[in-house]
Amino acid sequence: MIPMKNTILIATSALALSACGGGSTGGAARDHIRVVGSSTVYPFASLIAENTVKSAGIKAPVIESTGTGAGMKLFCAGVGVSHPDIEMASRRMKASEYEDCAKNGVKDVVEIQIGLDGIAFAEASNGPNMALTVTDIYKALAANPFGKPNTAKTWADVNPALPAEPISVYGPPSTSGTRDALAELILTKGCESDPAMKALKDSDKDKHKKLCTEVRTDGAYVEQGENDNLIVQKIAANPKALGIFGFSFLEENMDKLKGVTVGGIMPTYQTVSDFTYPGARPLYIYVKAAHLKSIKGMNEFAAMFAQNWGPNGPLKARGMVVAPDDVRAKNAEIVKSMTSLDPSGLK
């Protein structure tokens, strides 16, 4: 199991500012990189930080597991030593987040896809072998499935073929990229199994989003903060509960957990890598170009991802699903040139 804390200092380092002169952060810079964002990317960034310290001799980066959404707010708040240098993300940056960045002077953002992951649904090893569909999950977790208040108490209420056990799901909070991906990849697809809900997207986009992605708050779904290991512990101790977290945490804990099929597909390394598993998703880091000259080690940190994300690399050993060859090649070039993101493709 990968140890998880909300904030980690990979190795002891001074937090005092050191003058660098002439940098884009106003003539002074921290003596370490500051990274914020996704709890899913956190274990991978921690490994990269350790390897960068060893190979490049930089001060230990400070890595904060804030969740993707909260991390984006910190990252986009401005340029300078009081703001983070790198954002970890378990989903792509939103157009609205990019606009916030630009408004606050963060105009050159470098997007690097570092690998793949999946939103895994899991249960304890002695669980009931749940087999779900995206529609089952939507009907169980949505606040108002198909426009009506959620009254389902058991899984059998959702689907008579499922066990008559109480709906009890531990999952990520609203600040998490995993929660955003759950909404986009699973809940919305389940919602749009109803033609009327699918049509609503064109007639009333806001209502569609609310009905399709808002999660119930009556206790059936329990937020567990940005600590995926806590979810692992909760469901390992409760065979009647399900958990939702990054696939890497399932893979790390197969001695006490097992995956839950979604649409007949089990979350495995292969089904995530070929995107047959419904919850498969890319992982990213975002680099603040304005800090590259002033914060020592940022280029080396990003380059270390490229050096470690291959089929035989340490990131795969840590649980990351390796991206296809062409994706790795494209992003290795981005790392090398630090090409700024074109926001036109953001949603």
Provide a short characterization of the protein structure.
The chain is an alpha/beta fold and 347 residues long.
Written overview of the protein:
With 347 residues, the protein is of the alpha/beta class. It has helices spanning 42-56, 68-75, 95-103, 134-141, 155-158, 177-191, 195-203, 205-213, 228-236, 247-252, 269-273, 298-308, 314-318, 325-337; strands at residues 7-9, 17-19, 28-30, 34-37, 62-65, 86-89, 109-124, 131-132, 169-171, 221-223, 242-246, 257-259, 261-262, 280-288. The strands form three sheets. Strands 1, 4, 5, 6, 7, 9, 10, 11, 12 and 14 form a ten-stranded mixed β-sheet that branches. Helix 1 crosses helix 12, helix 4 crosses helix 6 (177-191) and helix 12 (298-308) packs antiparallel against helix 14. The two termini are 35 Å apart.
The dominant shape is globular
Evaluate the radius of gyration. Answer: 21 Å
Strand content bin = 15-25%
Helicity level, as a percent range? 25-40%
What are the salient characteristics of this protein?
alpha/beta; single chain; ten-stranded mixed sheet; 14 helices; 347 residues; disordered N terminus
List the helices and strands and how they pair.
Elements: E1 7-9, E2 17-19, E3 28-30, E4 34-37, H1 42-56, E5 62-65, H2 68-75, E6 86-89, H3 95-103, E7 109-124, E8 131-132, H4 134-141, H5 155-158, E9 169-171, H6 177-191, H7 195-203, H8 205-213, E10 221-223, H9 228-236, E11 242-246, H10 247-252, E12 257-259, E13 261-262, H11 269-273, E14 280-288, H12 298-308, H13 314-318, H14 325-337
Parallel strand pairs: 4-5, 4-6, 8-13, 9-10, 9-11
Antiparallel strand pairs: 1-5, 2-3, 6-14, 7-11, 7-12, 7-14
Helix pairs in contact: 1-12, 4-6, 6-8, 7-8, 12-14
